[in-house]
TrEMBL record, chain A:
Keywords for this protein: DNA-directed RNA polymerase, Nucleus, Transcription
Function: DNA-dependent RNA polymerase catalyzes the transcription of DNA into RNA using the four ribonucleoside triphosphates as substrates. Specific peripheric component of RNA polymerase III which synthesizes small RNAs, such as 5S rRNA and tRNAs.
A single cellular component GO annotation: nucleoplasm
Cited SUPFAM superfamilies: Winged helix' DNA-binding domain (SSF46785)
Residues annotated as signal peptide: none
Cross-referenced InterPro entries: RNA_pol_Rpc34 (IPR007832), RNA_pol_Rpc34-like (IPR016049), WH-like_DNA-bd_sf (IPR036388), WH_DNA-bd_sf (IPR036390)
PANTHER family: RNA POLYMERASE III DNA DIRECTED , 39KD SUBUNIT-RELATED
Biological process annotations from GO: transcription by RNA polymerase III
Protein name: DNA-directed RNA polymerase III subunit RPC6
UniProt xrefs under Pfam families: RNA_pol_Rpc34
Gene3D superfamilies in the cross-refs: Winged helix-like DNA-binding domain superfamily/Winged helix DNA-binding domain (1.10.10.10)
UniProtKB/TrEMBL annotation, chain B:
Name the UniProt record assigns to this protein: DNA-directed RNA polymerase III subunit RPC3
Reported function: DNA-dependent RNA polymerase catalyzes the transcription of DNA into RNA using the four ribonucleoside triphosphates as substrates. Specific core component of RNA polymerase III which synthesizes small RNAs, such as 5S rRNA and tRNAs.
InterPro entries, sorted: POLR3C_WHD, RNA_pol_III_RPC82-rel_HTH, RNA_pol_III_Rpc82_C, RPC3, WH-like_DNA-bd_sf
Molecular function via GO: single-stranded DNA binding
Superkingdom of the source species: Eukaryota
Any Gene Ontology biological process: DNA-templated transcription
Keywords annotated in UniProt: DNA-directed RNA polymerase, Nucleus, Transcription
Residue stretches making up the RNA polymerase III subunit RPC82-related helix-turn-helix domain: 13-70
Species of origin: Daphnia galeata
Family: Belongs to the eukaryotic RPC3/POLR3C RNA polymerase subunit family.
Length: 328, 532
């Protein structure tokens, strides 16, 4: 048997230990000073600094140090990191958000708060926060409760799904798509208000048409043109009546007037206004070309059991109750 | 007797024929309405009546222009009989015809048309003779009606195309055919009145004859021209629409323009040819006596009617001061839509009307948009749109969204309105309304026949007593022979019957509009608007 070959234990070349991150650096700047310089740069370039800029400014500083300092700044929520869209380059910019003002907030809260802030006035749903922050349900709930208690965020329920709650910053106004606009209050559609405004607008237009009819001797053209009312005028009058608590915009009134168009009572036309450029929408009442479908004047036209009516069976015109009660 | 259920349209025709011509004719008509074509033997076995009855019934129907015949394709020795559906439906409109004629012409023309409607087909002399007799009876005067006046009335009716010649029998000497062929006249010849001598007729009238006997033009037979009356009834609807949209004078103007259009376009087409501004102005000037203000603001009225969204007049050219025409398809589409809107409003409510109209205007729309534009609460929007769908006013079109294979495939659900289909649905229910009204009326009158007869007798004797100046207590005693309850019941029955008659003629108006829409909608588009 051959003798055990001497196993050469190669001694691994032990690398020279890296110099520990000491506060002293090559050109003698302390870490704090580098940090301060970085903050200065960040202020100088509010749009963000990239690695290139850092290199040109502090060529001698070790990359590792720069990275550590940047990480520290990010954890302090003073700086946020982005990726440039075109070049896929990383750059950092100063965060001017008030979150940095929150003291004693732990990291989780800050992350959640950051996400809520990003959502702006549309708010963000709990599930979305959970996905983006990868926190567990329990932790998330704790964080949200804490933040709500501090009155930093609030929850708003959306019109489209009554059970769904979105979170947004406390002092923000929720967006129109959540509250549904002027016609929704407490997430319910205010049909009565719409009906009331509907009637009001129609009455106004009727009155105008009546007045216009007096001018019959001037010809039909005058009668027709003077029965028009522009949406601005209607908005003015209705706002003056102070029926609604909030400010009625011209668009709101136009949506109401459009419903009157859809009922066939009112006709819309756009004319160009002399004063301002652009189209002005004007409205006037019109008569329908046919007064009403004659079949609806008899019981059969509006009969709810028309499909079952016939010559045999329980429902026959011979002993129809509706005919019996018909009193034209 | 057969017991099957007819479609509403056929049911109405059957009821009308039954009402005017009796049961036997009604049964034959019912068979033909359902079967479309029938030979003599088919009808006999189908209805179970005797051959003699069937033959007489067919003779009546043919004479009344309700049934036409032609040789069977397979066996030219056998005749196929078929119902003329349109004419059967027009039975409903006879009262309106008389009213129209009276409005346009006068009472002598009205009598002519009345007799012609009653007989079905008649030669000119026969018609004049019978009308003269009727007028004589009515007036009860010693002086005899001059038949030349009636002859002139007859000519007037022919020039205005209200009466038309029936097709003549082709006489081929070479080959005697079993089934006579009928030849339609050329368009111009259809309305030419033969020269007639009124003297023989006058002589017969003086002799108080009841029948005209042999006369020179017994081969030239006339009947009522239903198409012309249809045009007239349609024009009434259009003039009313114009009057409602603008005002009365616009209605007058539109009436004049309609006349001009009819003169320019003898055939019915989807859109009429243009009529020049000058022509219209002349017509208005001639008619100035009726509405002086029309002349004054003529241009304005014309412009307002043109710009009206119903499409009553449209400007098609600029020559000779402007060419004005009408596109019947557009106008009747708007009128039909107005009818549909009214039906939706009455059956389902204002909110449903908003949804229906906005879907129609937007062509395709999804649920969210619909709810926003119609300003109804989301729950209402859903309920109403599904209710409209259930009754075939709205339809859904599905569009698949995206091609992702992950998860359920999302799709857009768009609502839209298929106008011809909806119109057909409402037309179907209009026929049903009509037939129901007629059935209820006949039922009521038959069930209460004895009561009504008693009431009629009672009224007659009461009149007699009053006429004879009977003492008051006798009258009072007699009037108690019929109880108050009975009198109330009779009043109620008569009132319902009147309402039903009115309802029937109004339902007919709806039917006319919807049918006109479908008719013009299916006509081919004109190649070009021709300029004179």
């Amino acid at each position: 048997m051959a003798g055990l070959a001497a196993v050469n234990i190669k001694k691994e070349k032990i690398d020279e230990p890296r110099p520990s991150v000491s506060t002293v650096n090559d050109d003698g700047r302390s870490e704090a000073e580098i940090e301060a310089r970085m903050l200065e740069l960040l202020h100088q370039f509010p749009k963000g600094i990239s690695n290139q800029i850092l290199d040109t400014d502090m060529p001698t500083v070790d990359k590792q140090i720069k990275v550590t300092i940047l990480n520290k700044l990010m954890s302090k929520e003073k700086v946020s990191m982005f990726k440039a869209a075109g070049t896929q380059e990383l750059f950092w910019c100063l965060k001017s958000h008030p979150t940095s003002r929150i003291k004693g907030a732990d990291n989780e809260e800050r992350v959640v708060l950051g996400l809520i802030e990003e959502a702006g006035n549309k708010g963000i749903w709990t599930k979305d926060i959970r996905i983006k922050s990868s926190l567990s349900q329990a932790t998330l709930n704790k964080v949200l409760k804490a933040l709500e208690g501090k009155k930093v965020i609030k929850s708003v329920s959306s019109v489209s799904a009554a059970k769904k709650k979105v979170y947004m910053l406390f002092n923000l106004q929720p967006d129109r798509s959540i509250t549904g606009g002027s016609w929704y209050s407490d997430n319910e559609f205010e049909s009565e208000l719409v009906d009331l405004l509907n009637h009001q607008c129609y009455r106004m237009l009727l009155q105008k048409a009546e007045v216009a009819k007096q001018k019959q001797n001037d010809g039909p053209f005058t009668v027709r043109n003077s029965s028009f009312l522009s949406s601005k005028e209607i908005c003015q009058v209705i706002s003056d009546l102070k029926i609604v608590k909030f400010n009625l915009t011209v668009e709101d009134i136009e949506t109401i007037l459009d419903t009157l168009v859809f009922e066939g009572k009112v006709e819309k036309s756009t004319t160009s206004d002399g004063n301002c450029d652009g189209q002005v929408k004007t409205y006037r009442t019109v008569e329908k070309p046919v007064s009403s479908a004659s079949i609806v004047r008899m019981p059969c036209g509006v009969c709810p059991v028309m499909k079952k009516c016939g010559n045999v069976g329980a429902i026959q015109p011979k002993d129809c109750n509706y005919y019996g009660e018909w009193d034209d | 007797m057969s017991s099957y259920v007819l479609s509403p349209f056929n049911q109405t025709c059957y009821q009308l024929i039954n009402k005017y011509f009796g049961e036997i004719v009604g049964e034959v008509a019912k068979f033909l309405l359902r079967r479309r074509y029938g030979t003599l033997f088919n009808i006999k076995t189908g209805t179970g009546m005797s051959l003699w009855d069937v033959k007489r019934a067919l003779a009546v129907l043919i004479h009344q222009n309700l049934v036409e015949f032609q040789a069977n394709e397979q066996n030219p020795n056998i005749v196929d009989y078929s119902i003329i559906y349109h004419n059967a439906h027009c039975l409903l409109r006879y009262a309106k015809y008389l009213y129209t004629i009276k409005r346009i012409f006068g009472s002598s023309e009205e009598v002519l048309i009345e007799i012609l409607l009653k007989i079905g087909q008649a030669s000119a002399s026969d018609l004049i003779f019978q009308s003269a007799n009727k007028l004589n009876e009515a007036i009860d005067d010693v002086k005899v009606i001059n038949p030349s006046d009636l002859y002139q009335s007859f000519q007037r009716l022919a020039t205005e195309n209200f009466i038309i010649r029936c097709p003549k029998i082709v006489k081929s000497n070479a080959f005697v055919e079993k089934v006579p062929k009928l030849l339609e006249f050329e368009d111009e010849e259809k309305f030419i009145v033969p020269q007639l001598e009124m003297e023989p007729i006058a002589k017969l009238l003086r002799e108080k004859a009841t029948q005209i006997g042999e006369h020179s033009d017994s081969e030239i037979i006339w009947r009522v021209n239903h198409q012309r009356f249809d045009v007239e009834l349609r024009n009434v609807i259009l003039v009313n629409a114009a009057a409602r949209r603008v005002d009365e004078k616009a209605g007058h103007l539109y009436h004049l323009i309609l006349k001009l259009w009819r003169e320019a376009n003898p055939a019915e087409a989807r859109a009429s040819k243009g009529v020049s501004h000058i022509l219209i102005k002349d017509a208005v000037r001639k008619n100035d006596g009726r509405s002086p203000m029309l002349m004054e603001h003529f241009d304005q009225y014309l412009r307002v009617l043109c710009e009206d969204s119903t499409g009553l007049i449209s400007r098609t050219g600029d020559s000779r001061g402007g060419q004005f025409a009408v596109n019947y398809a557009d106008v009747f589409e708007n009128l039909a839509c107005a009818i549909l809107d009214s039906v939706v409003l009455e059956r389902f409510g204002t909110k449903a009307l908003r949804i229906f109209k906005l879907t129609r205007m937007q062509k395709f729309i999804d649920q969210d948009h619909m709810q926003k534009l119609a300003m109804v609460s989301p729950k209402d929007a859903k309920t109403l749109s599904y209710k409209l769908m259930e009754n075939n006013f709205l339809k859904i079109k599905e569009l698949k969204k995206g091609t992702s294979n992950v998860g359920p495939v999302k799709s857009f659900n768009l609502f839209h309105v298929n106008l011809p289909e909806v119109v057909r649905g409402v037309l179907h229910s209009s026929y049903k309304c009509l037939s129901n009204a007629m059935e209820r009326q006949t039922h009521d009158l038959t069930i209460n026949k004895r009561l009504l007869e008693r009431h009629a007798d009672f009224e007659k004797t009461l009149e007699q007593l009053r006429g004879e100046d009977a003492p008051d207590n006798a009258i009072a005693e007699f009037s108690q022979s019929m109880t108050v309850a009975d009198k109330e019941l009779v009043a109620k029955i008569l009132k319902l019957s009147d309402n039903l008659t009115l309802a029937q003629s109004q339902a007919d108006e709806t039917i006319l509009i919807l049918e006109s829409y479908l008719k013009f909608h299916s006509m081919p588009m004109p190649m070009f608007y021709s300029m004179p």
